[in-house]
Amino acid sequence: MATIIDGKAIAQTIRNEIAAEVLQLSHKYAQVPGLAVVIVGSRKDSQSYVNMKRKACAEVGIRSFDVDLPEEVSEGEVIKRVHELNNNPDVHGILVQLPLPKHINEEKVLTEISVEKDVDGFHPLNIGKLAMKGREPLFLPCTPKGCLELLSRSGVSIKGKRAVVVGRSNIVGLPVSLLLLKADATVTIVHSHTPDSEKIIREADIVIAAAGQPLMIKGDWIKPGAAVIDVGTNAVDDPTRKSGYRLVGDVDFEEAKKVAGWLTPVPGGVGPLTVAMLLKNTLDGAKCKIER
Ligand code: NDP
Questions:
Q1: How far apart are the C-alpha atoms of 153 and 147, rounded to whole Å?
Q2: In terms of CB atoms within 10 Å, which of 2, 110, 142, 271 comes out highest?
């Protein structure tokens, strides 16, 4: 039976470490890290993510700067607010909650965030450096960084291992594969046009599943003893729940736990790490400025 990686507990440990460092900074320099969270419109899911992030900041002593803009705000106004945050020395990280309304060009807005405050790690310069040998990005994207943190804190070594990443999105699949490569794994990326993905996944010592396909990866797709990190977060109908749905991963958890060596649950696996890594990036950004 697989060791179930408790993302919630690992994230809590990291948050405690962050809180201790924030306290040290405030004692030594009378300053605390600041994170600006920009939200446009009133999408319920985005609002709940933003509230969660703001609450998480408060819990570790990070000051959050709330920028709540109406759905009909112009692209120019959003960019103006981003520029203001870029120039505010109390703000060490800027996060623009996606998706933005259709009339706003997301790429344009994200590119305006100062690379030194890009705590989401999506700025092309940060991604570019992640892809280059011998270069270090200022920030790593939170979910991919969280996946590697789960592996290292569970004692899974990466060097020399065969890793398969399922998915190649800009926010998860691609950056996590680059991170694994930087950590000396031999990496294969599987996507929607890959034939025989099952066969490729079966060769992996480490599987990172980020396809957004509920329960796609079955137990017999997994090499016995492999470490399986399930990023997928998919809502499926469940009439037995009050909400009418439940969340499942890309991996068939019940089957996989009989075969894998390590396995993350959904929910309670990668999700909590994503928020913890956002706090960590904000702290690191602040330390660069405050301690210099
Ligand atoms: P995207 O939809 O942007 O990307 C999905 C990727 O999976 C694409 O590259 C796609 O290939 C590939 N894919 C789709 N179907 C298959 C298939 N059958 N076989 C192999 N590859 C396939 O999703 P995201 O990367 O944004 O998110 C992936 C999942 O992770 C989602 O469930 C999302 O909710 C979750 N997520 C969880 C987070 C967390 O904190 N826990 C954070 C972010 C995402 P192609 O490129 O060819 O289209």
A1: 10
A2: 142
Active site residue 257: no
**Contact assessment for residue 226 and residue 204, using Cβ atoms and an 8 Å cutoff:** yes
CB of 33 closer than 6 A to ligand 1?
Answer: no
Catalytic residue among 6, 118, 120, 250: 120
What is the mean predicted confidence (pLDDT) over 226-237?
97
CATH pick for 30-114 out of 3.65.10.10, 3.40.50.10860, 1.10.357.10, 3.30.70.100: 3.40.50.10860
* Structure tokens given for 222: 């997994």
Q: Tens digits of per-residue pLDDT, 168-199?
A: 999 999 999 999 999 999 999 999 999 999 99
Specify the pLDDT at position 200: 98
Separation of alpha carbons 129 and 119, rounded Å: 15
Ligand 1 contact, 163 CB (< 6 A): no
**Start-to-end C-alpha separation, the chain:** 48
pLDDT at residue 80, rounded to an integer:
98
Q: Does 264 sit in the ligand 1 pocket, CB within 6 Å?
A: no
Give the mean pLDDT of the chain.
97
pLDDT tens per residue across span 13-31? 999 999 999 999 999 999 9
CATH of domain 142-271: 3.40.50.720
Segments in the chain forming alpha helices (H): 7-29, 44-60, 75-87, 106-112, 124-131, 142-153, 173-182, 197-201, 253-256, 270-290
Range(s) of the chain covered by CATH 3.40.50.10860: 30-114
Residue of 6, 97, 145, 250 marked catalytic? 97
Tell if the pTM clears 0.85, that is, is over it: yes
